[in-house]
Amino acid sequence: MQQLWRWRKLWIVVAVVLLVALIYNTSQPRERLSFVERGLRDLMSPLQFGLTRITQAVGGVFDALRDIRSLRQRNAHLESRVVELQTEVYRLSELQRENAFLREALEFKNSTTHELLAAEVIGRNPMDWLSTVTINKGANHGVKKGMAVVAGNGVVGIVEEVTRFTSTVLLAIDPRSAIGGMVLESGDPVLVEGDADNPGFFILTPLDRDTVVNPGDVILTSGLSRLFPKRVPIGEVVGVEPANYNLSFVATVKPFVDFTHLTYVFVVLQDDIM
Which of the pair, 253 or 61, is modelled with greater confidence? Predict the structure, then answer.
């Protein structure tokens, strides 16, 4: 047993000496590798190649994950920026519309002697979009039932109901509405009502059998009803048809006001317009 242990110690010493000699030999500068080094290199090269490929693949995965994270952050930033820009576009569009209204208001006020109150449309009848609108001015602002409502390009309607801070306006194109009008080209009196059979248009009835109306004629308020100021634009004749019941004809009138996109209006602050 002791002899076996001596041999083991001897072999260990020999192995250590050989390893030290090998390390010393390989660490010295030389032109060629030793036989042992070449063998070890050939033996280890497949393993080294495999480890290199695995390291590259793992590194590529981590790089891809970093790229994905960076792209997600960039995408979130761009989406946030898009929302900001859309909001800014909407704000600028609203400012542009408001500026156009203010210019229109100034021109309209300069063209009339009546006192006008600017108001914004804040609600509509969901059951009948072309029947009534709600504006943000009421009794506290001097609005009264029966007052005329106009826009820069024509007739809008009549105040139907009033609260302290809001008012309901019956639109002129509603079949319940009737306005005294006149033909610009001839001065002949006519009656203009909302057309129940053709929503969004007026139907014109002559008040004189000798009245002649042609497509393209412009219809204005006559001022005789004492509801609207005189010569406020109503619309343009787009069609004329023969009529029964002792009427020579009826005409279809397209309003100058775009009632589907009504935003700002003016209330004429007079109960009885002469």
Answer: 253
Q: What is the mean pLDDT of the chain?
A: 81
User: What does the H/E/C string look like for the chain?
Assistant: CHHHHHHHHHHHHHHHHHHHHHHHHHHCCCCCCCHHHHHHHHHHHHHHHHHHHHHHHHHHHHHHHHHHHHHHHHHHHHHHHHHHHHHHHHHHHHHHHHHHHHHHHHHHHHCCCCCEEEEEEEEECCCCCCCEEEECCCHHHCCCCCCEEEECCEEEEEEEEECCCCEEEEECCCCCCEEEEEECCCCCEEEEEECCCCCCCEEEEECCCCCCCCCCCEEEECCCCCCCCCCCEEEEEEEEEECCCCCCEEEEEEECCCHHHCCEEEEECCCCCC
Please determine, for residue 31, whether its predicted confidence score (pLDDT) is greater than 70. no
For residue 139 the two structure tokens come to 């009794």
- Homologous superfamily assigned to 116-124+148-156+172-268: Rod shape-determining protein MreC, domain 2 (2.40.10.350)
- How far is CA 169 from each of CA 101, 106, 160, 204, rounded to the nearest angstrom? 19, 22, 5, 21
